[in-house]
Write a structure and sequence with these properties.
- Two copies of one chain form a homodimer.
- Chain A is an alpha+beta fold and 243 residues long.
- The first copy, chain A, has two domains: 64 residues, Winged helix-like DNA-binding domain superfamily/Winged helix DNA-binding domain (Arc Repressor Mutant, subunit A); 139 residues, Chorismate lyase.
- Chain A has seven helices and eleven strands.
- In chain A, strand 2 and strand 3 form a beta hairpin.
- Chain A is elongated, with a radius of gyration of 25 Å.
- The two termini of chain A are 22 Å apart.
- At the A-B interface, strand 4, strand 8, strand 9 and strand 11 of A face strand 4, strand 8, strand 9 and strand 11 of B.
- Strand 8 of chain A pairs antiparallel with strand 11 of chain B.
- Chain A binds a DNA duplex (30 and 30 nucleotides) through helix 3.
Chain lengths: 243, 243
DNA sequence: GGATCTTAATTGTATATACAAGTGGATGCG
DNA sequence: CGCATCCACTTGTATATACAATTAAGATCC
């Protein structure tokens, strides 16, 4: 193959390395112009498609940004943000090697509360499906899931058997998720939550508010509440998976 | 340009849509074989590079996986996990349009506690740098940052002036982050935290435990504690940024 | 039967070329 | 001056071709 050298490093990768080194050394500051595809062709004696690939991949990685008709530029460093993975509770329990089970407490249709209406694009007090489920880690109640489901999207939600399938699994199957909002916060458990999680009144809880979307629109809105002493959100992530 | 139609949809995008539709409809189950580049060329009357691009981008998006010499296959759905963005507190406050300031409470060297030693790869009770800082949103104390810093990596940490630069900014500058661990949990504020955040004894707090790494090793270990009534972790993310 | 070789299929890298499309500056005109 | 036009530059999409590298399966030989 046409390689730039004997070390087996593809040409486009060599160009990427060069650009990254210029940025990391400070030679090419933020928002400064990067050589055009044509300039890189000359500089590295490669075809435009190869130079383009280097620029393209760096753009996908968030290192550069490009504008048609203008040029390519160094992006702002993203080291200020990291990503935390939020997994399904059932998967998480199984990953611990424990046994997951779920107990259905309530499954009904009720008038849509204001907050939920706003989240799902419904009208206040029009019917919305509601399920209340406790997730167990072995025998310990771990998470209380209060979920509102858009009846227009999932008309047969109330007919499901949630003893062998979690709502999340069912929804994933019938309306593949495309997007989700998440809010994580610390709250004090209310009486209702204390009862179902079997915890005391002053126990802090981690509450995850999740809104899911499929292609057609908002599907569900859920409060996932876990006792602070029993559950953490954890994750390890590469901030700059650059090379 | 050579377009597949008048609607302005590029050919490679049309091929991606086709493949996605087959997967979503269940016609092409998990781990099943996807048409080869050559087969797609024939089917869509495009060049191999165009067919390849469709497969390539779907692979980058996690929809497919490919093996040289073997073929392309449908990947396992990833709808079980989402990603939450964790941003720097100063950025987050500024993004709200508020004024961020930080007050340094303590900056010293102390014997390394056991937990910190394990996190940073140090020996228990050997010296470790420690800083305690309160971050303010306008005039309200928002977050208490207790940070342990590896002296072997950042020898001049104690000499810094943290009145105009946060520890995070300083560390980012001298030891670019490559990776980070995060744990999010809900806790009750201890006396120490209550005092600095000016909150009551029974207020639930969101505690983010963050460990950062540069290329050379573990740099710092920090507890970032915020009052539950004042701070949330929020994020919106495309699970499948498909189009 | 088992090890080795060959071959076909598939993905990976690379080139040369062409035209489309967006941006911004220069030019020319009223 | 203000405005429209044109043009050079840059990125975006697409083709046709070539060769490299990897894998799996079949063929061959011992």
């Amino acid at each position: 193959m046409q390689r730039s050298n004997d070390s087996g490093i593809p040409k486009f990768a060599a160009i990427k390395e060069f650009i990254l080194s210029q940025i990391e050394s400070g030679n090419w500051p933020e928002h400064s112009r990067v050589p055009s595809e044509h300039a890189l062709c000359d500089q590295f004696a490669v075809s435009r498609m190869t130079a383009r690939r280097a620029l393209q991949e760096l753009t996908e990685q968030g290192v550069l940004y490009r504008t048609q008709g203008v040029g390519s530029f160094v992006a702002s460093p993203k080291s200020q943000s990291a990503l935390l993975e939020i997994r399904n509770i059932a998967d998480e329990i199984q990953a611990r090697g424990h046994f997951h089970s779920a107990q259905l407490v309530q499954l009904t249709s009720l008038p849509c509360p204001t907050v939920v209406a706003a989240a799902l694009g419904l009208v206040r007090n029009e019917p919305v499906f509601f399920s209340l489920i406790v997730h167990f880690d072995n025998q310990t109640p771990l998470q209380l899931e209060a979920r509102y489901v858009n009846p227009k999207m999932i008309p047969y939600y109330l007919q499901q058997d949630f003893s062998d399938q979690t709502p999340h699994e069912y929804l994933s199957a019938v309306a593949p998720l495309t997007e989700a909002d998440h809010i994580v916060e610390a709250v004090l458990a209310d009486e209702f939550t204390c009862k179902h999680l079997k915890i005391g009144a002053h126990e802090p809880c981690l509450r995850l508010t999740r809104r899911t979307f499929s292609r057609e629109g908002a599907v569900s809105f859920a409060y996932l509440t876990s006792a602070g002493s029993r559950y953490r959100l954890g994750g390890h992530l590469n901030i700059n998976p650059v090379k």
